[in-house]
Structures are given as structure tokens and as C-alpha cells.
Amino acid sequence: MLVDTYGRVATDLRVSLTDRCNLRCTYCMPEEGLQWLAKPDLLSDDEIVRLISIAVTSLGVTEVRFTGGEPLLRPGLVGIVERCAALEPRPRMSLTTNGIGLGRTAAALRAAGLDRVNVSLDTLRPEVFKALTRRNRHHDVLAGLAAAHDAGLTPVKVNTVLMTGLNDDEAPELLAWAVEHGYELRFIEQMPLDAQHGWKREGMITAGDILTSLRTRYALTPEDAEARGAAPAERWIVDGGPHRVGVIASVTRPFCAACDRTRLTADGQVRDCLFAREETDLRGALRSGAPDEEIARVWRRAMWGKKAGSGLDDPSFLQPDRPMSAIGG
Fold first, then answer.
1. In 3D, which of 168, 128, 136, 193 has the Cα closest to residue 22?
2. pLDDT per residue over 129-178, tens digit each?
3. Which residue, 115, 71, 119, 108, is CA-closest to 91?
4. Could you give the CA distance from residue 266 to residue 251 in angstroms, rounded to a whole number?
5. Considering the entire predicted model, what is its pTM?
6. pLDDT single digits (tens) 256-302
7. Torsion 230-253-24-186 (CA) sign
8. What dotted CATH number matches 2-327?
9. Among 68, 86, 185, 236, which is 20 to 30 Å from 80 by CA?
10. In the chain, domain spans
């Protein structure tokens, strides 16, 4: 299995299918000028399925999440999902998306074998959405969420980043909306993964800030810590249940000790941590004709050297060269 020197076992594989996106969220990408990966550098559909197959059948991976950039921009996505659903053992599969294309693809993805989705939505206000994403597509995201729910891609989870001076007052309103529609809301602290390298800890909306805001309207009861497992989100029961709200506090409440994730970039590089500055090339091994056993060995070796934590609190911390859009969530 994918074990590291601290005894953690990676069973959750995050697969980036593209670094391209049809939004330009201010905390992720610049408005223009970001250079995309060249098409020959990207893994083909066959290469992606082969690597996922190795992970599932030889390395103990049980969960596969497709990410981007925006994964719905990958033309072969439905076919990739369908082929991975046929693997034995069958992994649970999810998708992290901005939701813009879900209105036309949710039913096909569910039929292909996708289990659920996480949709990024930072605001209920169209004008704030346009300011945050630099695109006027708020209505498309809402339609995509509804389509995912109707297709049975549940639980539909909504990922929200709060930004000072833009949407930092919306937490209670967002939770009320999520409860009304049957979505599970998860707030995510802004992380140092923007392409501009402009992130600053000072002024960041923290987990503590979010919970304080929510408690102005709701009674929040912490979920049993054992129920969390390796999940990145701490969850709270809202007003006695059944609804829950989560907070992913990678910066102020890191959860590295329980991390069970391994990451594959769209150009075939293994990353053992979201904040890693080193990568291990699997694409080269694939294209040089290496057998599955050799690729699995390289992957195991890459994960063995995983550090104890992200290092965000270390004064010497350096932001990864790749932005979130090129790593995958």
C-alpha cells in the first residue's frame, strides 16, 4: 500500500484532469496570463485510467476524486468515469467542480458511475460572484447544483471560501440556503495556492471567524471526533440535526496527522501533499514502457517520503510553484 514513514496510508487519490478553468477566481488564478499545460504533456484518457487502475488494484486506493482546473472541461470525463467504475474492486468516485457544466452532464456522469460531487460556490449574490470569479455565471452554478441533486449525485457538497470585504458576511445566509436545498456546506480557509503568490495570513478569514459568524444564528454541536476519520472537514450538527456544516481549516487547524491522500497532476506527477514542492514523475515511466509493477514501486517510494505536515507554520515555508488550478484539490 501507499504507506509513509509516519504510518499513514493513502487510500484517497485526487486526480487532476486538466489545469484549465472557465472561471478566474481571485484566490486561485490571475485574470489573464496563466500558461496552460501543453496538450502533449497531459496524460491521455488511457494513461489516466491505467494509473487509477494501478492505484486501485495494487496500491489500496478506495476513493478517487476527479479535480482540475475544471474537470468538466475534460472531453473524455464520462468515459474515464465509466471505465474506472468497472474496476475490481470498484472505487468510490467523486468530482470537485465549479458546477458550470453540471446542468448538461450530471445525469450522464451518474449513469457512468460517479457517486457524488463537490461544487464550489462562494456567494449567493450574483454581483459578488462576478467580482470573485471575473465571470457572470452564477445562474449556471445554481442550475448545476440542482441538476446534480436531481441526478442523485448525493450528498451534494458545496465548497465556500470567504474573503475579507467581499463575502465574509455571508456565512449564516449560505448555511440557511444549503439547509433549504439539502446541500452540505463546507467552508474552506483560503490557502497559499494562488497563482499570483499574493496570499497573506493576516486578514484571512479563519475557521474561528466562520464559526463565530454561524453561531449568531445557529446552535452548532461538534460531531463526534471519531466520525471524522481522515476527512479534511470538521463537522458540526446544525440546530440539533439532521443538517451538518463543515469547516476545512488547513491553515489554522491542520489535520496532517490523519492525511490519507495522494495526488496525481494532469501531466502525470505524483504529489504527496497539497503543499509539496517536490513531485515524482509517473508519465515518463508510463511512456517508456514500464510495467504496472514498476510504476507501483515508484508510486510507493514517492509516498514513503511524505513529510509530517504541510509546514504552513514554519517561518521557512515556501508556497508551491504550481497553483491550485494545476495541482487539483
1. 136
2. 999 999 999 999 999 999 999 999 999 999 999 999 999 999 999 999 99
3. 115
4. 25
5. 0.92
6. 899 999 999 999 999 998 878 889 999 999 999 999 999 999 999 99
7. positive
8. 3.20.20.70
9. 185
10. 2-327
